[in-house]
């Protein structure tokens, strides 16, 4: 089904929520992987329903000809006190992904975030933006993590992400400016770009040379407006259904996909929806989204 020239996979978050645990919580690993196989896709990220034992995971993926492309890794590198323990954890994470044949590590700073920073308390309301000192500490830590990834034949791909200290366009620019381009790459996410206030196409063009991995996700703008009017935080926005698959929201994917085609992007891209699977059937939404994206590619004249 995939006519796109780059490698297209799908994230298990379409079936089972990562930040909203009740979404698809009764779904099994077998259901997810069988659906991915039926869709004709051969790449996935790690999901919380997948086996954590590498042998069992290889068996489940291998019998369906599916590859583990990446796995999310939270880091707290903006606080120097956490540097050693975070890098030790990053090395173990890298070794696991290397053993699975993965190529990229989805990496995001959790310092300052409401939902992911272990130093925050439940009553707090806002993301704590980084100070100038913290920016430099974070960049140094990411460069060190990127060196660990490179030692193992992988790339650190930084995931700009809603509800974190690197979500806005100027924050993405700052991160790219401060980090070593040979050690820290960008995970370009269309949905999180829009959520953070960026034009997804402009972001793609501006930082294309740093992009080593992609998440293709759409936005329901009316739901987003309502969520923000109600002062919903990031997880609240997910619960309200802000995110969906490409073709079901407001992002124009035609120029985005054509830009990737014209530039010869040959890495992996993951189809993402991150919505309640009880309301939005993951297989059916993914199937429609694949048809939509295929329809956007210009045929050779």
From TrEMBL:
GO MF annotation list: myo-inosose-2 dehydratase activity
Gene3D superfamilies the record matches: Divalent-metal-dependent TIM barrel enzymes
Enzymatic class: lyase
Presence of the UniProt keyword Oxidoreductase in the record: no
EC number(s) given by UniProt: 4.2.1.44
Keyword Thylakoid: no
Keywords: Lyase
Residue stretches making up the Xylose isomerase-like TIM barrel domain: 34-292
Entries under InterPro entries matching the protein: IolE/MocC (IPR030823), IolE/XylAMocC-like (IPR050312), Xyl_isomerase-like_sf (IPR036237), Xyl_isomerase-like_TIM-brl (IPR013022)
Protein name per the record: Myo-inosose-2 dehydratase
Organism: Paenibacillus illinoisensis
Gene: iolE
């Amino acid at each position: 089904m995939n006519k796109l020239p780059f490698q297209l996979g799908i994230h298990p978050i379409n079936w089972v929520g990562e930040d909203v645990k009740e979404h698809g919580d009764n779904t099994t690993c077998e259901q997810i992987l069988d659906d991915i196989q039926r869709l004709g896709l051969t790449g996935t990220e790690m999901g919380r329903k997948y086996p954590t034992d590498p042998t069992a995971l290889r068996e489940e993926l291998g019998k369906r000809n599916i590859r583990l492309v990446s796995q999310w890794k939270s880091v707290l590198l903006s606080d120097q006190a956490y540097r050693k323990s975070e890098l030790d954890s990053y090395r173990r994470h890298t070794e696991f992904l290397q053993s699975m044949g993965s190529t990229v590590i989805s990496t995001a700073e959790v310092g300052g975030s409401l939902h992911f920073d272990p130093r925050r308390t439940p009553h707090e309301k806002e993301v704590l933006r980084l100070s100038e000192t913290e920016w430099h500490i974070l960049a140094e830590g990411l460069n060190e993590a990127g060196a660990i990834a490179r030692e193992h034949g992988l790339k650190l791909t930084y995931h700009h992400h809603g509800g974190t200290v690197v979500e806005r366009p100027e924050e993405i620019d700052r991160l790219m400016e401060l980090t070593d381009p040979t050690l820290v790459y960008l995970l370009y996410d269309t949905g999180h770009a829009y959520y953070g206030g960026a034009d997804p196409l402009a972001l793609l063009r501006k930082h294309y040379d740093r992009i080593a991995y992609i998440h293709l996700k759409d936005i329901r703008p009316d739901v987003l407006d309502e969520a923000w009017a109600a002062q919903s935080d990031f997880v609240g926005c997910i619960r309200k259904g802000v995110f969906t698959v490409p073709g079901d929201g407001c992002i124009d994917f035609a120029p985005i996909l054509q830009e990737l085609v014209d530039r010869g992007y040959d890495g992996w891209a993951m189809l993402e929806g991150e919505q309640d699977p009880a309301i939005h059937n993951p297989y059916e939404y993914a199937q429609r989204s694949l048809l939509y994206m295929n329809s956007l590619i210009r045929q050779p004249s």
